[in-house]
Amino acid sequence: MTVAERAAREIDTILRARDYERLREIVTDDFVDHSAPPGTFDGADGYVATMRFVGEQLGIAYEVADVVARGDDVVVHAIARGRHDIPLAGLPATGRSFEMRTMHWYRARGDRLAEHWGVLDQLGMLFQTGALPVAGTIDARPASAAQ
Fold first, then answer.
1. What are φ and ψ of residue 55, in 5° steps?
2. Which of 94, 104, 105, 146 has CA 20 to 30 A from 76's CA?
3. How many CB atoms lie within 10 A of CB 13?
4. Which stretches of 18-134 are DSSP H helices?
């Protein structure tokens, strides 16, 4: 197991325990979260604050589905589950549960994680919570076949 994979798997353990301060042990002081919410600051302090918000305010719990590691890079496919209990991005809380597919790419430097890129199915989450209405089905056939 690479250093990057070990650190990424430790994030899952830390989040399950809601022991956010332990994140400082596995990320660099100048950690950069390239997909942090607007207004979030870099560094270990920013990552701890973001993950505390995700766990405590959004109530998100992750289930790791797969991990792929190579050298200093590790990619984690996880399923995030939570409830839309607080206003978010100007949308009022709906109280509905959601399940969101996520991908997290971490890059290690030395024995700690230095960078993170996340891809989240936020549109799917908004549909599930009712924050956005589902307009109907999509006809994905080519235009010539749809006629």
1. -80, -45
2. 94
3. 11
4. 43-52, 122-129
* pTM check: above 0.85: no
pLDDT tens-digit readout, 65-108: 999 999 999 999 999 998 888 887 788 888 888 999 999 999 99
What whole-number distance in Å separates Cα of residue 37 and Cα of residue 45?
A: 14
SS3 of 123, please?
A: helix
Strand order in the sheet with 97-109: 27-33, 112-120, 97-109, 73-83, 61-70
Helices (H), 20-118: 43-52
134: which 2 tokens?
A: 């589902």
- Between 135 and 130, residue with greater pLDDT: 130
Q: In angstroms, how far is the first alpha carbon of the chain from the final one?
A: 53
- Strand bridging mode 27-33 / 73-83: unpaired
